[in-house]
Request: fold
Amino acid sequence: MRITNKIMQRNNLSNINTNKIYQDRLSSQMSSQKKINRPSDDPVVAIRALRLRSNVTEITQYYTKNIPDAESWLKVTEDAISNLAEVINTMIARCNKGVNDELTTANRQIILEEMQKLAEEVYSTGDADYAGRYVFTGYRTDTPLSFMEAKTQNYTITEQLDKNAIDSVSKVETDRLLEINSSNYKDFDDLDEDDISSAEVHRIRLAYKDLSEGELPTIEFTGPDGQTHKWTGTDITLKHSYEKNPNPYSFTEADPDAIVYIPETGEILLGSNRYGELMATRDSEATPNVNEAEIRVTYDKSNWKKGDLRPEHYFYCQADREDGSGDRVTYNSNYLTSGAERQIIQYDVGYNQTIRINSTADECFKHGVGREVDDIVRAMQDVLDLESVKADIEGIMEKTTDEDELKILQNQLDAVGKALTYAKQKEGKLFQSGITAFQKYHDDATLCVTNCGSRRSKLELIQNRTQNQKTTYETLKSENEDIDITEVAIQLNAAELTYNAALMASGKVMQTTLLNFI
Reply:
C-alpha cells in the first residue's frame, strides 16, 4: 500500500486528537479529583459508585440525624421520669411522717398542703416535650398529656379494670358535728357519741373525680357462668358526698345489693352482694388472649381543670368535637381488643435496626398517684375539721358555768372525740396504704428510667458501630471514585510531553512534500 503525505497528515492529526482527548480526561480528573465524570467513562466504577453513595447517604442519615434525635428524645424522657420518681419519693416521706399518731393540727396542715402541691407537680413533668413534640403521648405528639387550661368538653370514658381495682374505704358518720359553733351549740342538745359511727364498704375508685351526674355509669363484666352482665342506671343509685343521714357509705353498707355512684369523688360503692359478684370473675387460662376477668366501667366527665390528665392518652373514649358540630371523635378503639398494642414510637437507627424511644403515659404517669393523694387529703381535712370543732367546743366550755350547758357541751365533745378517733384511724390506714401504693408507683417510675437507660446504652453501641460503618463506606467510596492525584499528575505530564512531541513530529512531516524533490 502506498503511503502518501496526505495519509500521514491524517494519521498524525488523528493521533494528536486522541492524545488531546486523553490529556483532557486526565485534566478533568485533576480538576474534579474523580475517576469518572460520566457513566460511560467506566460503567463498573459508575455502578459501584451509585451503590456506595447510597450506602453512605443512608448511614449518614442514621449517624447524623436519627441517632442524635433518638438520644435527645430518650434523655428528655429519662429526665422527666427521674423528676417524677423524686416527687413520688417525697410523697412516701410525707406518708411516713403522717403515720405518726402524735401529729399536731399545725403539722397535719403542713403535710396536707405539701401533699396538694406534690399532687400538682406529679403530672406537670408529663408535659415534657422535645422539639415541640410531647414525649409521653404516644402518636399524638402534638397534644399535651394534661389539659393546659380549664375547659368544658364532654368525654365518655371506658376504663378497663379487674378485681384488683376494688378496694375498701371507710367513712365517719359525723352527723351534725361540723355544724356546731358558739352561737348554735344549744340546738344540738340531743347529740352524743352514740350518733357517731363509721361505715366501711368496697368501692371502685375511678381515674377521675368531679364526674358528670347526668348520665349514670355502666359496669360490664363476665360472670362465672360465662355470660356478660351489665349494671346500668336502673341498678345504680346517684348520691352525693355531702349527703347525710345516711351518707352514701352508710347507705351502701346497709344494702348488700347497692351500687352507689358519687360523682364528686369519682367512686362507685358496692354492697356486699355486688362486691361478691365482681370478685367471682375469673380469667380463663384456656384463652390467654382474652381477659374474662375484665371489668369495664363507662362514665361521662365534662368539666376539666388545668392539670387534669387527658383521657385520650389512656383509655378508649369518645369526645365532643370542639367546633360545636355535635359530632364525636373516637380515641383508641383498639384498646377494647385484648392484647392491643400501645402507641410505641421506634426510630430506624441502623440497617434493619430500630429502637424504641418513647415511654407511654400509662407506664409511668398513672392516675392512681393523684387519686391516692385525693384520699389522703380528704381524710386529713376531715380530721382538721373535727379538731377545729373540738377546739371551738372546748373554748365554749371554758367560758360557761351553766351545768346544763356544760352537760350538752360534754356530750358533744365526747361525740367529737369518738369521731376523731375514727377519722384518725382512717387517716393512719391511708398513710400506711399510701406508703405501699406510692412505693409501687415509684418502682414503676424507676423501671421506666431503667428502660430509658438501657435503650440509651444500646443506642450508644449502635452509634459506635454506625460510626465505624460510616468510615468504612466513605473509604470504599473514596477508593472507588477518587483519583490518586500523584499518579494522575505524572500521567498528565507524560501526556503533555507526548502531545508536544507529536506536534513537533507532525510539523516536520507536513513541511516535506513531493515538490521538495522535483
The CA atoms of residues 5 and 515 lie 11 Å apart. The first strand starts at residue 129 and ends at 130. The first helix runs from residue 5 to 32. The chain has a mean pLDDT of 87.
